[in-house]
Amino acid sequence: MAIALPILGGLGAGAAGFFGFTLAATSLMAILIGGLIIVGAALLVGKMMKAKERADPGMLVNKNSNNDPIPLVYGERRVGATRTFIRTAGPEGETTSNAYLHILFTVCEGPIESIQEIYFNDTKVWDVASGISSSAGEDSIDFTGLLEITNHLGDQTTADANLVSRFPEWTADHVGNGIVYSYIRFKYNRDAFSGLPTVTFTVKGRKVRDVDNLAGGESYSKDPSNIIADYLTHPIYGRDFDDELLNTVSFQDAKSYYSVDHSFLDGARYILDGALSTDDTTYENTQRILACCNSALIFSNGRYKLIPFKTGNSTDIITETHIVDNWNMGFGDKKNRFNRVKVSFTNKDDDYQQGSAVIENSSFKTLDNNLVLQKEIGLDLIVEPDRAKLIANELMSQSRYDTTVELTLPHTKQTIEPMDVITFEHPYLPEEAPTLFRVLDVLLRADGTLVVKLQEYNGSVYTELDPATL
Question: What global pTM score does this model have?
């Protein structure tokens, strides 16, 4: 028996165990039977379709603070930083001079793979291959005598030696364990600096464990299964789950699915690149990660299973003989059916600025009497326009298959789980009615029967498409 974690939207019943709520303290419909907690979950696809476009959460800005939340970067992303230490002094910290500006930029959680590039405004002044630029920007400015840059990737075990030697308030205890930061010393030059620049960093992000070997070390990965496992188990910014709470086989199966090369993309079917605010709840951030790989978490037999939305074969058959009590069928409406989707994302082709793309299906629009039915969604860990368009198209296509069924089944069907594809046959069904459905929600009642919610399933939704055709 299982419960489902909603993909997107407000906190649903299926999230109770995920966030450690006590059942008695909630208003959720839940039943405790034989030590098994059964909680009614929200409609997975319905929640996914409620994703909202949101403004870029300030990932490219600089600010002054020593207590602001530190972002979390997975994959590759350009981010701003927080100025957590600022001093004017001589080159070695002399108080008799103010010709140099010393700034420590806190970048993100670590350890990470690398800082690839550093930009002042839109000008690249440093990269990992060649160091400080001797001919930067349109004016070909030589920064080699103007900058000193020391990067720390979050795996450091000692404090920055230059900061310790130059400033008495910076001691050997200021290691910055697990924090990625860059100490930059600026020498004043009116031709190079018209003011304090906005400093941004292109980062290859967090090192994570591989779900194929959780006992092994950490390495750089864009794979969604590795990233979700990291977020669920990390004790600082994540949920701090024990590894035993993860159904490792399901994560490995998901990884196999994600890693297959897409026929029309450069690389794997799903990868993640982006930044999350650690000021947001772990529930919200888990939703954002799952949305960007079109997947769900369900809680089954005491463990969390990761399951992508994908093609699947029917695993069970429900007929008239199985139905207990009444059942009903719904055929959707235009509130949850779309022919146009606007998707917002961070666009790496536009210097990681917030971008958007619109896809529209003229055939769907014709079926809707030429009425535009638009949905806006946001994908925080997607930086490639083509990937954003493909996910948006899957969500739009799924919205077209909106026949739903709610019915009550006997206890013998307790093997049914959310995300299963099943066959539903009934003599009262219209001839044109679908027979394949995805299980969205399962609720165990006190008498042992199950209330099951189904939504029409069509494998064509997950057919690989060329984004150029969208």
Answer: 0.89
